[in-house]
Task: structure prediction
Amino acid sequence: MRLRILPNFLVQAILLHHGLSAVVDNSNQIPKLHPRGQIVFNMGSSWSSPASKGQEIFKPADAVATDPSEDPRYRRFTHFLKLNHHDHAIFYHNLQYHNHLPYALASAYIFGGSRDHLHDVYEECSKELEQWQDSPEEIDPDNWRAHLGDKRYQRAYLSFFEDEMEQRGHDWKATLWHFLTDKQVDEGGNDWDNHQLLYGLTEGIGHPLIHLGYALELEDKGLAMEALAMAAVSYNKVHELVDNPYPPLPFITTSEIREVLDKLFDDPNYDDICSKNGMGQPSKILDDPPYVTFYGYVIQKERAALLEAYQKQVEASVMLFTTSHKAGNPQYDFFLAHTVTAAQALRVILPHVDTQQTWHLVRAHMVLMAQVYLSQCRPTIKDWFVDDYDIGNKDWDYIKKKALESEYKYDSHYLKVLRSLQEFEKLFGTGEPGEKKYNMYLKAAVKFADEFSGWIGFSNASMKKLDIKDTNNTQ
Ligand SMILES: *[C@@H]1O[C@H](CO)[C@@H](O)[C@H](O)[C@H]1NC(C)=O
Result:
């Protein structure tokens, strides 16, 4: 029986902590939950896309790399990647911002941008970046775990991983997977509680995951070592929310990500989350995370179930991002965008990992979605904003044109989101004409490409811009 793994008092303590009363009946080991408020799934029931080509998430993504001697565009692109790697730190602006130049360059390259355009992207996006600073101490094989989570060590970690790669005859893949999956179980810990860097990829609103996705897709060793360094200095405690393979099971479990979001939407414990924390503070959410909701999200550890959960998370992240603004005032939130681009990175990474790791990463993406859903004040998702969106004759060529020519052509997040949506369509198809979800990724892409007018979500002022429910009546 699964619940035997964790002592019942722990189940009780966790549930009580969240304002729920739990009675755990020792004879049958099933906790009975009496939620304080009524749980109503009022944001639209979850749905599945039409039969799809989704099995392909377990096959490697299309290769992007070509022979540089034959493709001057590719040569220019990789030249700029190297330049950035050499000249600019991964974290800048008091170690708060991530260097997004590789994502902007890669997106522009994959959309077919010319050599001159790639040059302009480099010039524009590198303006605000900073040079590397020395780290307080070197990283070596004996102390490499000592400074995990400390961004001041970004340079030292990168040098360390590059040395390790050199010692492996420049085999970047061997180096990458060695350090991503190297296990450490603390003394007295449970063997599932192992600290592999892979399990920290969704830290920092998913940036290490996104970086790794680009490294694998572009087969670029510089990006791969940057991804390792970024994962190392971002490593924190997200994995603790996912590690336990046999969590205490709340009475209500689900394999529907939309129900997870619905539960958070209705959870009165989070009614004052934004009056307390303000908006745009995702790290604060993890100080007191919704354990019960996380435990209640149950995905079987086998491929079909993982694929289905992944597809639903993709769909939910797209709907969350594109439809949670107010009617008649389209707005696009920076943090919610990262659930979309992180989902696309997962698509690139999943073919390289085993079932246990897939399970972990899919759940970690669920945690990321829940985290930013709360930090952005639980906006209301309204699928019909996309379902009913009229795209006229616009197609992916139109999207490509927007990505390369619109006023946001140097905005790495704008490019990344458009690319992600196109990749999702390649993966899951368009569905059949007449179906409610027909063409959803293209509709979402056109809606976003045409309506975008700058990112919101960083500060309290953005609270008025998303469709956030008024919780005053609960005080
Ligand atoms: C945002 O709101 C929170 C909570 O009300 C407050 O503590 C914080 O100071 C506000 N931030 C700004 C920049 O106004």
Q: What stands out?
A: The first strand starts at residue 21 and ends at 25. The chain has three domains: 1-36, 44-66+241-475, 72-236. Residues 275, 278, 459-460 surround 2-acetamido-2-deoxy-beta-D-glucopyranose (CB under 6 Å).
